[in-house]
Write a structure and sequence with these properties.
Layout (H helix, E strand, L loop, with lengths): L9 H20 L5 E11 L3 E2 L2 E2 L1 E4 L9 E9 L8 H8 L5 E4 H4 L6 H26 L8 E4 L10 H12 L13 E4 L2 E2 L5 E2 L4 H10 L4 E5 L3 H6 L6 E5 L2 H12 L8
Helix pairs in contact: 4-5
Amino acid sequence: MLSRLTRLPRPAALAVCAVPVLGLFAAAAFAPLPFVVAVPGLTADVLGSDQGKPVITVSGAPVRDTKGQLRMTTIRATGPSSTMTLPELVGHWFKTDQAVMPREAVYSSGGSDEEIEKHNLEEMARSQSAAADAALGFLHKDPKDVKVDLNLADVGGPSAGLLFSLGIIDKLDGDGSGGDLTGGRNIAGTGTITADGKVGAVGGVALKTQAARRDGASVFLVPRDECGDAQSELPEGLQLVPVTSLTDAVNALRALNRGEPAPSC
C-alpha cells in the first residue's frame, strides 16, 4: 500500500528548491579564487646607486659621468599563497591603480614563497648576464676585456634587462657623441633582453607606467607587443616609445636627443 504524498503549494516548492541553489551561489561567492592584486611598485635608477653601491660597475674600460636617469620599473603583488573571494575580486577590478591578475601570471614558477624568491633571483641573475652581453655586443667590446657588475638588491625577475643594457651603454658610450644617452631626461621602461639584444614582453606594464610617472619619468620604453596594455591607463605627460630590440631603444633615445620624433604606440 502506497502512502499519499503531500503536495506543497507551488510558491512554497520554489522556495524550498531555491534554498540549496542560493547556498551554492553563496559558497561560490566566498570560495577562495587563485588571483592576486598588483599595484605600482618601486622604480630604481640603474645609473645611480643602491644601498650605497653603484648599480652598474664597469672595469677594463673608461666610464663617463651621467646626468640623466634610467629607471627600471616593478609591480608589487600580494603573496603567492594569497587568494580572494568573488566580492573582493570585483571590488579591486575597477580601481585604476590596481590590477587583478591570475596568480600563475605573477608567480609562474609556483612552489613556496622561498622557492619563488629563489627562482626570481635566478631570473634576475640570468637577465643581468644577458644585459651585459647585449650591451657589450652593441658597443663591439670584448667581454673578456670589459667586465660589468650589476647590483640591485630586493628585486627579482627578468624585466629590468633592457634598462640594464641601456645603463651600461650610457656609462661606456653615452649617445655616441659625448652626450648622455638620456639627454639628461628621466627615462623609464621595462622589457626582458636576450644576449643578442632582442626585447621581450613582461606584463604589468599599465601599473609600471604609473610607477614611472610617479617617480618623475617623461618617457617610457615598452615592448612593442605591450603597447595596448601600456596605453590603457597611461598617465598624462608620459610618452610611450615602443621597442623590439636594444638597437630600437638606443636609436629612439638618440632621436629624442636630436629633437627628432621617436616611434610611438
